Amino acid sequence: METKIKKTIDEWLPEAVGTLSSDTVNDYDMLRSVSEYCLLNAAGNKEKVTEVFKVINMLYQEGHAYTRHCIENEFICNFIENSPALPLREYINYMPSPLKEAFIKTLIEL
């Protein structure tokens, strides 16, 4: 079944999921893949990182509780856990405000 998360990521960030098929993976896998893609581009391609943040923010704002929960638990947690501490502050500056709030909330909860 195609969910809003899968559909949005396939449409806006197809390069982030690579060979993953939206038919065989769940929302959590898609978001984890996007988070890993974002981390890989974080050092050298700020425009790509900003684009990813905008798409994830769009999902976060338009989504219901399940979507926000998926984003907080997979995208944000994976990003926080696998990113060096000092650049986290810099990444926050690239995030739209609603995603920034969710990011900080999740960081505090970890």
Task: Give the topology.
Elements: H1 4-12, H2 14-17, H3 27-42, H4 46-62, H5 65-81, H6 85-94, H7 97-109
Helix pairs in contact: 3-4, 3-5, 5-7
* Terminus-to-terminus distance: 31 Å
Counting DSSP E segments of at least 2 residues, the number of strands comes to: 0
Strand content: under 5%
Largest sheet, strands/sense/barrel: none
Q: Describe the global form.
A: globular
Give the rounded overall mean pLDDT. Answer: 84
- Structural class call reads mainly alpha
The whole-angstrom Rg is 13 Å
Order of helices and strands: HHHHHHH
Q: What level of helicity do the residues show?
A: over 70%
Number of helices: 7
Low-confidence stretches: none
Plain-language structure description:
With 110 residues, the protein is mainly α. It contains 7 helices and no strands. The protein has helices at 4-12, 14-17, 27-42, 46-62, 65-81, 85-94, 97-109. The chain starts with a helix and ends with a helix.
Tags for this model:
110 residues, single chain, mainly alpha, 7 helices
Concise summary:
The chain has seven helices and no strands. It is mainly α.
